[in-house]
Amino acid sequence: MISRSYTNLLDLASGNFPVMGRERRRLPRVMTVPGNVSEFDEDQAYSVSSDNPSSVSSDRMIIVANRLPLKAEKRNGSWSFSWDQDSLYLQLKDGLPEDMEILYVGSLSVDVDSQEQDDVAQILLDKFKCVPTFFPPDLQSKFYDGFCKRQLWPLFHYMLPFSADHGGRFDRSLWEAYVATNKLFFQKVIEVINPDDDFVWIHDYHLMVLPTFLRRRFNRIRMGFFLHSPFPSSEIYRSLPVREEILKALLNSDLIGFHTFDYARHFLTCCSRMLGLEYQSKRGYIGLEYYGRTVGIKIMPVGINMGRIQSVMRYSEEEGKVTELRNRFQGKTVLLGIDDMDIFKGINLKLLAMEQMLRQHSNWRGRAVLVQIVNPARGKGVDVDEIRGEIEESCRRINGEFGKPGYQPIIYIDTPVSINEINAYYHIAECVVVTAVRDGMNLTPYEYIVCRQGLLGSESDFSGPKKSMLVASEFIGCSPSLSGAIRVNPWNVEATGEALNEALSMSDAEKQLRHEKHFRYVSTHDVAYWSRSFLQDLERICVDHFKKRCWGMGISFGFRVVALDPNFRKLSIPCIVSDYKRAKSRAILLDYDGTLMPQNSINKAPSQEVLNFLDALCEDKKNSIFIVSGRGRESLGKWFTPCKNIGIAAEHGYFLRWSGNEEWETCGQNSDFGWMQIVEPVMKQYTESTDGSSIEIKESALVWQYRDADPGFGSLQAKEMLEHLESVLANEPVAVKSGHYIVEVKPQGVSKGSVSEKIFSSMAEKGKPVDFVLCIGDDRSDEDMFEAIGNAMSKRLLCDNALVFACTVGQKPSKAKYYLDDTTEVTSMLESLAEASEASNFSMRELDDAL
């Protein structure tokens, strides 16, 4: 079994993903790839998808979470399992299609002896469609109590590890354990998955690198991820040493879900600042373009299971719990708090706010009671013992100051409380108070609202009045959805105390209106609505999965899938050389930066090798070679002086020189540059206020660059500048355009596309219609050239049977149909064409000599 043997953690963390040994076991379904799981080789990870048909035709959902939605107990030597009806992962199936098969992959909350793991796994698979993941105790401790609870959990709740005693320093071995555990979950998923048919839905921060493992094996897998915790701001998240690894792993999902826009916004900002990615909203959907794939961003707070709460309410009523508590707190006004024992729940701040209310509003002394129920801590979190001591001390102090015989203002319950009893407390509470300083969602207010509404269709007296009040921290995920709650900053104890008084003093009519508003939302946005909406968006985002060609690239957590049009393919040098030899009139258009010269090169001048190849190509009388660049004509003219017959189109084609022996001509329709006197002061103003920006002054254009500025502020300034310039230049013959970290103002009608069409037209007029076109570029401006080639064909500027090779540099979405990986491959191809030309010229000279 996997649990008995796991590989070197350093290998895992470094991206060397070896196959873990496992014993052969029965599988629930026919696998897409023939053979046993143990026979899978990781080299298959780069395959596009299975070539074999799926064993089933209907969709299936595989839900992967740290914990299975099961309760487990061992009695008299035998195991007993049952569904955990309170588990979100079990409840979410209510929103999925009835005919959709659901499979769960996760771990159990109890330890299972290694000798029993096979039998337990088979029982859970047969009876519950659950696939358990087992791992050694030492790995479990490092994974959950270590990296999850001591690294990710505090950081995602805005707690930085300032010292070893508070938060703990980053421990590489814990990260390795996290990766190893995610690997084990991956091994379990691939035992049962049919990648062409199944959806995979991964949950929460425990499994954030799992998407990379799955995408690496199955490039077209339909996979969603939902984060149930907050996602911190970029200023906090950037302190994580493995920040980029986790971001890139999440981006291997098709859809990433968050509870609130704030969490999504923080994630998108991290992607922008750390990975340079841009997002956009189309028809209400937010998407990130990532190597040809659109990664969807879903914003949808989770809801509650109405049926489950109604059932619990019925049991509470039958047991008489509500009556018992009503009698116990008769004549008292009850405020209720229900929280986990966690430093981020703000329990002590709630107690201090209660103390403040009693001190400032003496009329509540002897009447107002705060019942604080504390659930056990979910793990060995940070500083739990310390915060527990503070809470108990506050309870003693407040009860000592304001308590009297028969009255205690604070009822502190830190023993297990049944769900039926909690429901009864909801019934009698006048107000629920949540003062968490940071919480992913928190469904306590939702449950309270439904309980105060009472049993649907019941006339029982215990169904409670149709009114409720909430005092909710503005730092919890459910706060934006509860517009009728009194929102507070829990750190402001005085203001929170006043909010408690306001909630208790509010008129019944106002409480009724607020309650009705909340209940309408909560009852319609339940857990079924949430899961149904997530699946719909996942289906929508994956609809084009099998229409594109996909392949994997990159190693370790830099792995990603490139998805491109099926007609987009790598340019074959032997094929183009063959077509090149047959052509009689060739036009070769080459971009400079990023095509002939690497973008990151310090020395921007072309190498002697490139000049030799270009000169050899220019010697061939069948060729017309042009450098088409955004650079100025002075630098380009100087660099390419050795190539006498090469043509140059400078500043995106505004200036054109047909060869080194000819003069520069102007292609722009307007030579009046008076508009520059308007533009330059505006750009200077933005440059002064935007650190890291600069102005590039060309003869025909002005460019404002903000590549080195803060991404967010630079983008904001660029947008404002664009609107500003469009306004002041409305009557000028110029075009204002935004590009990748630039805003450019240039004469209208000037582009690489227009100068390309001019070259083709001129060659046709000279009786040399082009029958071979090679056009290579790497950025957005070059897309105009690729588009112009298609237009030239329709305008009959090229021969009817012209061979066209529009090629972009790098594997990315483009209007070109071909690609080369980098400038080295471009140089290699030019060398091959130059050799073909030299061989042809040599043969012609031999023929001339013979004649």
TrEMBL record:
Signal sequence, renumbered to the chain: none
- Which intervals of the chain form a coiled coil? none
The highest taxon in the source lineage is: Eukaryota
Which InterPro entries does UniProt cross-reference here? Answer: Glyco_trans_20, HAD-like_sf, HAD-SF_hydro_IIB, HAD_sf, Trehalose_PPase
CDD domains reported for this sequence: GT20_TPS, HAD_TPP
**PANTHER family linked:** ALPHA,ALPHA-TREHALOSE-PHOSPHATE SYNTHASE [UDP-FORMING] 7-RELATED, TREHALOSE-6-PHOSPHATE SYNTHASE
The record's family statement is:
In the N-terminal section; belongs to the glycosyltransferase 20 family. In the C-terminal section; belongs to the trehalose phosphatase family.
Q: What is this protein called?
A: Probable alpha,alpha-trehalose-phosphate synthase [UDP-forming] 7 isoform X1
